[in-house]
Amino acid sequence: MDITQLTYFVAIVENRFNLSMTSKKLHLSQPALTQYIRKFEDEEKTELFIRSNGRLIGLTNVGENFYTNARIVLAQHERMLKELRENTTSVKGSIRIGIPPLILTVLFTEVLAQLITRNPEIRFDVLEEGAFDLRKKLILHEIDFAILLQPSDLNPQSFREDVIHQDELTAFMSIHNPLAQKKVISWTDLKHRNLAIFSESFMIHHQLIRKFSSINLVPQVALTSSSWDFLLESTRPSDFITILPSPIRHHMYFNDVVEVPFDHPISWHVILAYPLKSHYNRIETYTRDSILNYFLKGKAIEPISIG
To answer: Hey, which CATH number is domain 3-86, 3.90.1170.20, 1.10.3720.10, 3.40.50.620, 1.10.10.10?
Structure first.
């Protein structure tokens, strides 16, 4: 049964099984309407209607279920046609992007603002969580794109990773901290030092734990938080040391905290991660290309093209 036949079927039910009334509304002869229905029942070897003395008086159980599904299909078909007509003049839709709070502040403030303002018909749903949690949501297809850190441990046969920014992790501490006078520190300098680091939902947390484990150092973690600005603030009145991406220095608005690099720093490579698919819709392709062009080629965000 095609869309036309589904329309006839639903019309018969909604006109209380009155074939004469239905045929007039459909501008179709009553014999032709009867033939459409009987042909489908014969082909599918089922009966949709309850009949009495050759007249339709109701729906069988199969017919009831079929009617419910037919209405859903017709409604979806109407939506498809409506969207098709609308897309001839504009591109509408939504995209889901997961971005860790720190990366959102440091790297994505401008690019997101441009994406949103240049495309008022597209809804950009931004999920702000730690990269560790965003990785899980990407695997479960709860988001379309995730901004993560390398190594992400994603399956390369299922996901694509594009590096969009490269930097390193550095230490931030009060100017009164004994290590603040050093130009460079080693990881062993952190032994017995109070550390304020990201919580376990953040990839940086796991990067640090792996680093400490590799040099057989048990970190003295005094504080964990999901807020990078709180971690930074916590170093001001204390001897706490926090370890954050170096670009954070551009977002410090006080002079009593200093940044000290490591002699062998942990890389902070930010990636755009997304599922490998045989086909990406226009909004997915536009979002991916816009982000890559912005970070890798320095291109401003352009509105999505209609053609």
So the answer is: 1.10.10.10
